[in-house]
Design goal:
It contains ten helices and 13 strands. By secondary structure, the protein is of the alpha/beta class. The protein has a single domain, classed as Ribokinase (UDP-N-acetylmuramoyl-L-alanine:D-glutamate ligase, 3-Layer(aba) Sandwich), CATH 3.40.1190.20. One of its GO terms (molecular function) is kinase activity. It holds the Pfam family PfkB.
Length: 297
């Protein structure tokens, strides 16, 4: 089995689920819970519980929260290579979930913003392994050099590379052209509809995927309730798989991360795209049926 090396963000998610419509400038009853988060750490956790060999490279604060996040990752079976930052706290994300299930996130990257090339363990970069880079590492100016160094080390080591697009708003602030230039050489790109539109200007998933194959040999577009599609610059038509039905959506936080973790193992094993997409949709459905972005213990 191919070892997956994930470079990315580690966060604590404070999830506030409103019981009613938000009362602006007033008080709204809510259920507030704390969970492990961060796209890179989430993907690593889902990969580990699915049986993959996975190492996660990131940065945490020298605080109790950071220690708890570190122990959580080890509990999932992740080889957690976390550098402890003596000055910055562990990253935090406030996730506001409306009574209709819509999410808005307020992020403080904390120690994630100081990830540096020196934090990358050289022993993890070698032929036969796969690098998955969280887009947040590139979008955040403080950790960008680390992301670029990870991509360069992976290329020189002969590793296969996948990249996800992080989130549409910060991706738009960063700009499509720089992001596409930085990620040149990656074999696989993960994006959702909004992120694909930022990168290509196309509203249609198939059209966006076709444009993106000018930069990436393979592209996966996550389409929420409509499932996901895969497109390659060597294929005339995309492969589409429907989303798995769920009885109740509890929390959509981290569903896209779970999808990536479901997709990667069969894809790395050379399985057909439809099988990889179905595996991603299966894990995404599992993620949205419980609270928090990580797998349930």
């Amino acid at each position: 089995m191919t070892r997956v090396v994930v470079v990315g963000d580690l966060m604590t998610d404070a999830v506030a689920r409103a019981r009613y419509a938000l009362a602006r400038a007033s008080d709204t009853p809510a259920i507030v819970t704390m969970h492990g988060g961060g796209s890179g750490a989430n993907i690593s956790s889902w990969l580990a519980v699915e049986g993959a060999e996975v190492a996660f490279i990131g940065r945490r604060g020298a605080d109790i929260t950071g220690r708890n996040r570190d122990m959580e990752l080890m509990g999932y079976g992740v080889d957690a290579r976390l550098v402890m930052d003596p000055e910055r706290p562990t990253g935090t994300c406030v996730v506001l979930v409306t009574h209709k299930g819509e999410r808005t996130m307020l992020s403080d990257p904390g120690a994630n913003a100081a990830l540096s090339p020196e934090d990358l363990p050289r022993d993890l970069f070698g032929q036969g392994s796969h690098l998955h880079l969280s887009g947040y590492t590139l979008i955040n100016e403080g950790s960008r050099d680390a992301g670029l160094a990870a991509l360069d080390m992976a290329r020189r080591s002969g590793m296969s590379i996948s990249v996800d697009c992080a989130s549409s708003a910060p991706l738009e602030r960063t700009g499509a052209e720089p992001f596409l230039e930085w990620t040149n050489g990656a074999k696989l790109l993960f994006a959702n509809i909004e992120q694909a539109k930022v990168l290509t200007g196309r509203d249609d998933a198939e059209a966006a995927a076709k444009v993106l194959t000018a930069w990436f040999p393979q592209v996966v577009i996550k389409m929420n309730a409509e499932g996901a599609l895969w497109f390659s610059n060597g294929r005339p038509e995309p492969v589409h798989v429907a989303a798995e039905p769920v009885d109740k959506i509890v929390d959509g936080t981290g569903a896209g991360d779970a999808f990536c973790a479901g997709f990667l193992p069969p894809w790395l094993a050379g399985k057909p795209p439809a099988e990889s997409l179905a595996s991603g949709c299966r894990l995404a459905a599992k993620a949205i049926m419980h609270l928090g972005a990580r797998p349930p213990f």
